[in-house]
Amino acid sequence: MTRTERIAALHAAAKDRILVLDGAWGVMIQRRELSEEDFRGERFADHSHPQKGNNDLLILTRPDIVAELHDTYYAAGADISETNTFSATTIAQADYGLEGAVDDLNYEGARIAREVADRWTAKEPHKPRFVAGAIGPTNRTLSISPDVNDPGYRAVSYDEVYAAYSQQARALHRGGVDLFLIETVFDTLNCKAAIKAIKDLEDEGYEPLPLWISGTITDRSGRTLSGQTAEAFWNSVRHARPFAVGFNCALGAELMRPHVADLARVADTLVSAYPNAGLPNAMGQYDEQPHETAHFLEEWARSGLVNIVGGCCGTTPDHIRHIAEEVAGVAPRVIPERPPALRLSGLEPFEAVA
User: Which of 36, 50, 67, 191 is 20 to 30 Å from the Cα of 159, by its Cα?
Assistant: First the structure.
């Protein structure tokens, strides 16, 4: 299939059924108990910075592990798997001194995922597999000062964030992703920089790809870290006309449900949700079992709240398998038709109906 054919198949599949995203990568990599040498490989054996924990780097040093994880999640029932590029920007990789490896990380991450997805599509043509280019929030925020004594200070500029996302999106596109996933958005201004970077690729001659935006509600307040409610967040990003919008991370399914319901009420596009496996315990581990997570997501599906489901922190291929089984045969959420109105957003939404 060409990319154009894959994108058409993605839109068709979304109309036909609830799509399933893969689960967590961090927990699966941690289970490998990899050494510093595993992360470094031959290419970075003499690099000056420690690399253990730089999971994105495994794309270049242990591609076998990355390919195996894609394969495992597709086997578990995922329609879509993310590239292992959550932190593959110059901003995030600066912590490891690997800004120069960013192009390779994203291109190879997309290429590996593409190869695995294509094998599964060839094996099961009735259920094509898709690749989402994962674009994380970086470890910098444009809306909030990291210095409590200087509210106007920013550790990074908009232009720097935009440039980092442009580089990442370019390489992911060349590597063969089917769509972009801007995920775990805690700062909507960072997200807007990513949106612009992706949209500007079209001016450079790149084929337009579907855009999926997933925010994160950071706590029980029901707001993102930069202070927006679910509806205000949607009003802020709706201009991008995303293929899908939703929430992931921070909360387990039980606490995420009301925010997903808020989004499902107002978003005139697909709604996604991929929660954590509950909240972490005192040791930072996730105890929610696969059947428990799947039970929550099945209820969301039967209540008409979601079009795409999956798992975030703490979820495993078993979680994804249970989720896929529970939502199979359940009709996807019907996209609402909302009357035209002026809809704005600060921290709260504003709507002026004519």
Answer: 50
pLDDT tens track for 75-123 = 999 999 999 999 999 999 999 999 999 999 999 999 999 999 999 999 9
Q: 237: which 2 tokens?
A: 């990003």
Structural contact between residues 273 and 248, judged by C-beta atoms closer than 8 angstroms: yes
CA atoms of 131 and 118, how far apart (whole Å): 10
Q: Which residue bears the tokens 């730089």?
A: 54
Q: CB count, 10 Å around CB of 221?
A: 9
Q: Kindly tell me if the per-residue pLDDT of 354 is higher than 80.
A: no
Cα gap 81→23, rounded to integer Å: 8
Per-residue pLDDT tens over the stretch 231-253:
999 999 999 999 999 999 999 99
Count how many Cα atoms sit within 13 Å of the Cα of residue 221 in the half-sphere of its side chain. 13
Nearest to 334 by CA among 274, 268, 275, 273: 268
User: What pLDDT is stored for residue 221 in this prediction?
Assistant: 87
Between β-strands 342-345 and 308-309, what pairing exists: parallel, antiparallel or unpaired?
A: unpaired
30 touches 323 (CB < 8 A): no
What backbone torsions phi and psi does residue 45 show, to the nearest 5 degrees? -60, -35
Overall residue count recorded for the chain in this entry: 354
